[in-house]
């Protein structure tokens, strides 16, 4: 299915998900001798049942949402809009009876323990910036990796702020400024002294010490796992990029912040999404 005409209209991550999800559907249709562009609600039900045996409910729902969007955007009939589609998803949830696994929260107390094992090497300095930036900004991995030194701005009264130029919930790039602590400013400036105050704030560092122009989102999970092991933290699971958002949200909740403010800080578009992140760790 053509998708190039959607370039620029959606975030790159969204388009990648569309392509990957439709490819899975395409392969399944080929294996079952089904026309992918003329699939019926019955076909979709069979696809959901097949995917549910291999994937989480969240992944299956995302794939159906991607398929629905692509078909509509290309003016094809959308089988997921029929009652059979929603019933197939409901049936999948009841049969699997599972709650989407929540990220282990990286709260302020864990943040301090991770910072303590970073050290002052080039990688350690970068990791300190990553930890403080992730916890304070509550941004997604791709957004953390997109911050540039020029995004650190001075506000009228001398306060410092970071400009988030794009985000998952800001598809048009209107941008957003959010204040940052002195500790984060010092960390960013300290990192800049070692790698140069230009380009991306977070950079990949090779084994031979050479510095890449950027850090990949996947590397954030890798570094968090390494720091978790170095700090000998015994947690319910492995830390990941989402841990920043969940942990910071819990810290805000503990400090008395309202759900509305937590949603604003974390960039959640709905209270249902924010509540999903919080309810697995604390009754609210």
Describe the structure.
GO terms for molecular function: DNA binding. Residues 101-284 form the Tyr recombinase domain. It comes from Luminiphilus syltensis NOR5-1B. This protein is mostly helical. Helices cover 54% and strands 4% of the residues. The chain has two domains: 4-96, Orthogonal Bundle (DNA polymerase, domain 1); 108-279, Orthogonal Bundle (hpI Integrase, Chain A). The chain has helices at residues 12-31, 41-52, 57-73, 83-96, 108-115, 122-137, 141-146, 182-195, 217-230, 241-254, 259-266, 271-279, and strands at residues 152-154, 160-164, 176-179. A hairpin with a 5-residue loop joins strand 1 and strand 2. The longest helix has 20 residues, at 12-31. The mean pLDDT is 84.
Instruction: Output the CATH class name of the largest domain.
Output: Mainly Alpha
Mean pLDDT: 84
Estimate percent helicity: 40-55%
**Gross CATH architecture of the largest domain:** Orthogonal Bundle
Rg over C-alpha atoms, rounded to the nearest angstrom: 21 Å
Strand line-up in the sheet with most strands: 1-2-3
Structural class, please? mainly alpha
**CATH topology grouping of the largest domain:** hpI Integrase, Chain A
Largest sheet: 3 strands, antiparallel
Query: Could you say which overall geometry the principal axes of the C-alpha atoms support?
Result: elongated
């Amino acid at each position: 299915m053509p998708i190039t005409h959607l370039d620029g209209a959606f975030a790159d991550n969204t388009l990648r998900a569309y392509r990957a999800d439709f490819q899975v559907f395409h392969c399944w249709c080929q294996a079952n001798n089904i026309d992918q562009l003329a699939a019926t609600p019955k076909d979709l039900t069979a696809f959901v049942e097949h995917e549910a045996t291999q994937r989480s409910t969240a992944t299956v729902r995302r794939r159906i949402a991607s398929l629905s969007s692509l078909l509509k955007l290309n003016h094809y009939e959308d089988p997921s809009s029929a009652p059979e589609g929603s019933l197939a998803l409901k049936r999948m949830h009841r049969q699997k009876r599972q709650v989407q696994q929540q990220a282990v929260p990286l709260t302020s107390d864990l943040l301090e323990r991770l910072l303590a094992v970073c050290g002052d090497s080039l990688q350690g300095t970068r990791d300190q910036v990553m930890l403080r930036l992730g916890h304070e900004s509550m941004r997604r991995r791709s957004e953390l990796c997109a911050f540039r030194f020029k995004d650190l701005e001075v506000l009228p009264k001398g306060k410092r702020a970071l400009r988030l130029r794009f985000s998952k919930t800001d598809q048009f790039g209107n941008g957003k400024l959010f204040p940052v602590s002195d500790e984060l400013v010092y960390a960013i400036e300290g990192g800049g002294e070692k790698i140069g105050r230009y380009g991306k704030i977070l950079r990949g560092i090779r084994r031979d010490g050479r510095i890449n122009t950027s850090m990949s989102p996947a590397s954030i999970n890798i570094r968090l796992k390494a720091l978790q092991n170095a700090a000998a933290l015994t947690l319910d699971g492995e830390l990941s990029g989402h841990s920043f958002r969940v942990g910071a949200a819990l810290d805000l909740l503990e400090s008395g912040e309202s759900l509305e403010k937590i949603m604003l800080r974390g960039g959640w578009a709905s209270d249902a999404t924010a509540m999903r992140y919080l309810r697995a760790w604390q009754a609210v």
